[in-house]
Structures are given as structure tokens and as C-alpha cells.
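Before we proceed, please read the two lines closing this message. Report back on whether the C-alpha cells fit the sequence:
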Amino acid sequence: MPATHSNAASGNSSSTSSVYSTRLTARLAATAQQNAADTSHGSEPLPANAKQTMCSKIHRHIRSRIGTLCLLLATVVVGLTTAHSYFHGQSDTPNCGMSYSRPRYIEQTEFGRSWTRYSAKYKLYLYREGGFDVHDQPFRIPVLFVPGNAGSHKQVRSIAAASSSAFVKMVGESPHLVDEGCVGYDFFTVGLNEELTALHGYSILEQADFVNDAIRYILSLYPKTRAKHQLSQTKMALPTSVVVVGHSMGGVVARTAFTLPNHIVGSIHAIFTLSTPHNNPTASLERHVEDVYNTINQFWRRGFRNGTLDDVSLVSIAGGNLDSMINSDYAFVGDLAPSRNALSVLSSGINDVWLSLDHQSILWCAQMAHKFSAMMVRIMDARQPTQLVPLDERMAVMRELLYPSIDGEVSEGVMDKPMGSESYRYVRLADNDEVKLHPVDVRALADNSQTRSRKARALHLLPLHKEGGYNGQVVQVLYDPQLFADQPFDASQTNVQLALLSCNRNSTHNIADADVNVLCTTLSIPKVTKLPLKRDGDDPNLPVHSLHYIEYPLSLDQYEYVGIEVPAKPGIQGFLQASLTDQPQATEKTIGNTQLLVQPLTIVPDQKLGVRSRIKLNVPEDPFIVYRTKLVLRRNPATALSQEAKFGPVVRQSDGRRFESKFWYDQRTLDLAIHGRGAYLPTDSEPSNKTVSSD
């Protein structure tokens, strides 16, 4: 049995091997036939459609590779260009002075769960400045500071210290102002756990709810403290509102507080925001942030239309080019509130600041802190329940301090007033030491070589001889304030003694020993514009020297002379230049971006260059575009040799809405960047143009 089984198995295996061999032989034969067929047809051409298919595949492959390389190259170019623009373009030189303070932060421990449901994570502090605030209880005018995204309550220290210093200085010079309601400020500040408010909509709502609770608590403190600390014989009103200062997202939180149910109507009458993105969130990473923005902006627009916010003022100050945290375009509030209640301005155009500021330095920069404190002390009035002067008055103060007066605002001419006996005085024309007659323009120069008496003054007269009257003409005066300084020159001095007169030759009065006399009346001096002589890199701790400029329009032709009185004291220095000219008209050009890409544009002013000339460029206002401008000045050869230049050209860039203003001194290449009309912003009715004034 075993032998039989083995033979059967061997036979079966042999049969299987035979089958496999047959199949392998068949496959080899088929392969050989296919190879023979391929060899026999190798010399024959491929069909036309097959050739086209292969070519199209190759072309598509090459195009895809070329497209990928081009996209990669474009990405690299755009990235390098963006990096170059970020680090080298549109950037101003940081030139802030350092501010100093001696802070104390007193936590309001009584402000607990009985006042707010957020007492576990948010805190309220009272700021006290060392050397000034000796009491730990608030009794002055309440101010609440709201920090921004990831901000600290300690960021209040610079503006609080500057406000205390400005108040002490003001009261020291004019003690009677205390009886007029100028009693100083109590700065409160909130600690918001350094939350990332810009990224979380619910955090904005929670912080705004806490701010309303904090205001309610702050107002509850004053009935006791005001009675205990009486600063003046004049009765001070109990405060019913708090001034709110918000940095970055803190400004959004302050405006959100108005929309919540726990808001006390009338508890906020003034909001000041620093680098706050009012129009759009800086980073839209969560839909609730967009919802909060839409809600508060609609509320504020409706509030000014229905009268709910009629007495509320909103001031927005932004840093400009150096602020890389937020887009300064978003700080413009002209679409949210009417001009009667609101203003927006970049720090580069504010007198005595004249700097672009980054997102944090706008709080501690000495120049900005001093200007902010000067504005704060001008609007306080503790005799009013709001603790502030009325809306129109405080907005006028803020426009005066924050806006340059050269923005198309020349004084209303008062040369049409009759020459009354109560205001006239006689001036002798025969005395050449005191009176000078100029046929065209006035060029007065004072130096240390003068030997006149200390009380002497010089009267410079411009004759008014124009057929057809003088309507449409202006007197332009540019002068160095050193010419009027009684004490050693202070760059911040604006109380100059320039006198502008309207004069007629006197034929009815006789003065003994006078050859010829004129009868003059004093005119009201229009608002002075300060033109900074500041270059990049100047010492920020030194005051910026500036020239003063005024324009005065002529109304009637009943006068023979325009008179300008300047000092003639020994030891003084300075210069004055004045001219009588037609009303300056802007040289206007409309320019498209494609035109500038093809070739540069040369603009020659339509009018002869005077003390001030204007060029108005109608260009696309895009925040991604910078217009590089080169200034070329050609002096008159006849005067270039005889007259030494006293200063370089001062160029001022501004827009039609007074939002952006910037000065350049003695620079020939200017980079004009535009803010306030950024992408995705709502439009307004203001004209879209860019104006550059050369002074």
C-alpha cells in the first residue's frame, strides 16, 4: 500500500509540471511574436492623432512646470518687496522723548461682587502721582483709563503724570482758575487680566459690562469725598459722568459700554481714544468680534441721528506710519459721528508733537503726553455736573490744540471796520528809525548789532495800490518768534507780540514836528500756524524750533497801508517776511496710477511762488501706495547772491478731511503715504484728494 501511494503521487506531480511547461512555452511564443511584430512596424510612422496627443501632453507638462516656477518667483518678489516696504518704506524715524512718573496704584477693594459679577478676574485701581497726590481718596474730576488688547492697568501712568504736572503748572500761574472749576483729575484704571480682546468678541462685551459697573462705583464715591476736600470757595457740582480714555481696543470697549443694559445714560460725555481701530477689527479671527463691531457702529450712527449721543464727544488720535499693530486708517471716526461731536487726527500733524508713533509709544511719548495733558486741563470745569465745559467749547479747544490752523482757515477779515477814535493812534512816517515804507514786500531782519532803545519798535508799511479794490488779496506774514521774545527764547512760546495794523495818511490831525503822519488802527491777529524746523534724528529732549505764519484777507479798499509792527530792541534776533498777494490758489492736477507707472510727472505752480504755495493732487488714495515726490527749488539769481537763505523749505502734506497732516523740513525727497481711506472702510462724502502745501 505505501509503495502504490508513492507511485501515484509521483505521477500526479509529473503531470502538473508538464502543464506548467506547456503554458510557459505558449507565453514565450506569444511574447516572441509581439516582439517580432513591433520590430516589423518600428520603421512605420505613428498616426497623426497619436503624435498630437503626445505633443500636447509634453506641452502641458512644460507649461505646468513653468507656471509653478513663475508663481514661486512672483511669491518671492512680492515677499521681498513687502519686507522692504515694511522695514524701509513709509517709516518715520522714532524720535520720542521719555516721560517719567512716580506711580502708586490703589486697588479699590470695596468694588467687589456686590458691584460687579466680574470682580473675580477684573480689578479697579486709583492712580496716585508721587509728590502731587497726597490723599488716597478721589475728590477731583474722575477719569477712567481702559487698556487695550493684552494691556495693563499700569499704562495710564504717563498721561496721568503729565496731566498732574500740567495742572500744577496752570494753577501756579493762575490760581484763580481753581474757582472756575479747574481742580485737576483723579485717574482710575482697570486691570482686565491682559485678555486678548482683539481676538474674542465676548471679552469685549464682558469688559464693557465691567466698565459700566466701575463707572457706577466711581460716581458713588464723590458725595462724601467732595464734601471732605473742598478746594475752592466756589461750590463744585457732584460729578454725574466720567471722562474715558481708551488705548487700542480699550476705545472699542468704551464705545461698547453705551450699548449694554447696565449703562447709565449720561455717565460718559467724553471719550478719548489712542490708536483705536474704530471701523474694523484688526484681526477677524472670530465671528463674534465682527458682530460686536457691527452692533456698536450701528448704535453710534443711530445715536447721533436720534439725539441719544448729542452731548458726547469722541476724539481719535492715531500714530500713523510707525504703528504696525493696527492700521491707522481704521482710527478715522468721520463715518461714525458728525464733525460737531468728533474729530480724528494723526499724531504727525499735532503741534509740538509732529511725530509718527508706534502702538505703545503713543501712551508714553513725552511730546504726546504733554499735548494730551494740555488738552485735558483746558476742558475741565468741576462746577458742571458733567465736570467738563460744554460740548461746543471743548470741541473748539481740541480742534485748536490738535488741528493745524493752516487747513484752509484764515481769519475772517476785519479790515472793513470803520476807524474809530477809540482805537487809533498816530505814527510818524518821517522817523526812519521807526517807520519804513516798502513798495512790494517786507523783509525785516534783526541781529545783535542793533543799538536802538529797548522800547523802540519798527513799523513796516505796505502800500495798498491796486486798481479795482483789494478783495481776494491776503497779507501773508512769516516770522521767527525769536523776534518777539522778551525773555530767552522758548520754542513753545506762542504768545508773540506781532501787531498788524491798517493805516491811512492823516490829513485832519497835526502833530508837532511831524513831517507826515498816518492814522492806524490795530487789527485782530488771526490764528498762528506753527511750521516746525525739525529734521529726522534731532534730539527729542530739545524743543523744536518753529516759524510762525499767518494769512489775513483784505475786505475793503478804504486803507492806504497795511502796517506790521516789530520790535527794534538791542540783542534780539530773528526775521520777518510779509507780502501782499492774491488769494493763494492751488495748482491742481489729476493723476492716475497708470500715468505715474509710465513716466514721472513734473508740476510747476500756476502762480508765482510766494510765502505760501499750494499744490493739490487728485490721486487714488490707496493705503498700499506711496507717492515719491522730489522738490526742486530755483532761486532768483539776482537775489541769491545778495540774500542768504534763513531756512530751508517747509512742506506740509494734508488731506481734505484734516485727518492726516505731516511736515517735512529742508528735504528734497518726500514719501507721501495716505491714511484714513483704507480698504474695506465705509466711504464718506468728503472729497477724495491729497493736498501738499509748500511754505
Q: What stands out?
A: The radius of gyration is 38 Å.
